[in-house]
Design a protein that fits this description.
It is built from 3 helices and 3 strands, in the order E-H-E-H-H-E. The chain is of the alpha+beta class and about 100 residues long. It has a 3-stranded antiparallel β-sheet. Bound molecules: iron/sulfur cluster.
């Protein structure tokens, strides 16, 4: 399940179920070592931005490296976030969409 850090703070952490009183049962999100951020380069928005930049820059290489680098350095221009926004608890395994 992919959530923002704020949304994660409203979800139970399975590690706290038997930890006794005083321990908050909520997920700590990015403060926890188990938290994993979604790689923004797997987003459809990222792929669309690279395709758009490839046309703008006339980058016809198979990997579109020049276009991808351009998008990475100009994320706001393409409406992409500067920092990752969504993640998941790494203890629960990889998300369903993770490439095999
Ligand atoms: S990332 Fe997982 S282990 Fe860490 S606080 Fe959240 S639910 Fe608990």
């Amino acid at each position: 399940m992919m959530v923002t850090a704020e949304e994660a703070g409203k979800l139970y952490c399975p590690l706290t179920f038997n930890s006794g009183e005083g321990t908050p049962p909520w997920c700590e999100g990015p403060k926890c070592m188990a938290w994993r951020y979604k790689d923004h380069t797997t987003d459809d928005k990222w792929i669309e931005a690279v395709q758009k930049a490839a046309k703008e820059l006339n980058d016809t290489s198979p990997s579109r490296t020049k276009a991808a680098r351009h998008v990475m350095n100009n994320r706001t221009k393409y409406g992409l976030p500067i920092a990752p926004t969504h993640g998941w608890c790494g203890l629960a395994g990889k998300p369903e969409w993770w490439p095999k």
